[in-house]
Amino acid sequence: METVALQFKLPLLAVSLLFLPFLMATDFKYCDKEGNYVVKVSGIDISPNPVVRGKPATFTISASTGQAISGGEAIIDVSYFGVHIHRETHPLCEETSCPVAVGNFVLSHNQVLPGFTPPGSYTLKMTLLGDGASQLTCISFDFKIGFGTSGSSVSDT
Fold first, then answer.
1. Which InterPro entries does the annotation name (predicted)?
2. What does the pLDDT profile of the chain (157 residues) look like in tens digits?
3. What span, in angstroms and rounded, lies between the C-alpha atoms of 85 and 72?
4. In the structure, how many helices (H) and strands (E) does the chain have?
């Protein structure tokens, strides 16, 4: 009886592990539903999820492009319960390897949020601009900051 149960559980566990990345994927939406963006986003992964105050968090965005991209900017706007609280701009080539060739690529942003960052629901809006300020894409997605902290430090690292 125990052997039969084990034979049933192992395949079920294996199948569950295959779908785990899809279950943890973050939903996103394009800023303009009618927009014909050069960069198409296929998925977002946030690690850890929820984000922990005072600890490194990585936002990884899988995307593809129909044209080569030599540079530009990534503009990140953050809202807390609908109120805009933060904006930062990064050279696109700091977030991904440039030049970006036609096809699939990954954009990765690392951030350490201060220990005093309030827990709760946040919305991140990311706009990618190419050289010449042409909009390559614009997406938004929600993420949560948990109640954990890094310890005694309250400095913005």
1. Ig_E-set (IPR014756), ML_dom (IPR003172), ML_PG-PI_TP (IPR033917), NPC2-like (IPR039670)
2. 554 443 443 333 333 333 334 345 689 999 998 888 999 999 999 999 999 998 999 999 999 999 999 999 999 999 998 899 999 999 999 999 999 999 999 999 998 888 888 999 999 999 999 988 799 999 999 999 987 654 433 333 3
3. 23
4. 2, 8
Domains within the chain, CATH numbers bracketed: 25-145 (2.60.40.770)
Contacts of 59 (CB under 8 A, 6+ apart): 44, 45, 46, 108, 109, 110, 111, 124, 143
Which amino acid is it at 59? F
Q: Which amino acid is at 109?
A: H
